[in-house]
Amino acid sequence: MKVNELLKMVDEAVLKTNIHLLDVQKRIFESPHTSWEFNQRSLELQDELDKLKRIREFLEKYDPDEDAEKVFSEEELKELLEYLAYMREIDSYEP
Fold first, then answer.
1. What is the domain extent for residue 28?
2. Source organism's superkingdom (predicted)?
3. pLDDT in tens, 53-84
4. Residue 68 lies in a domain
5. For the chain, how many structural domains are there in total?
6. 95 within a domain of the structure (yes/no)
7. Within 13 A of 55's CA, how many CA atoms are on the CB side?
């Protein structure tokens, strides 16, 4: 796997997280009974978005055609791929 492929996965995860974050922020004002939960979720998503942006900045330091296996250990790469898969599959209707 190349660094460029990882960057594309990160970009997709950032996009999905941004969409979900906007949806949750919009729902904060729907009801006073649920606003706290949506506010908390929005803060969590913002933290995840910041984490994804830091990952992107880290990956941008490397040549896009470089093998990701040279940048990360096998375990780190596996964890990163699992995290990115989860963030890319985030459901906008998930509370």
1. 3-88
2. Archaea
3. 999 999 999 999 999 999 999 999 999 999 99
4. yes
5. 1
6. no
7. 27
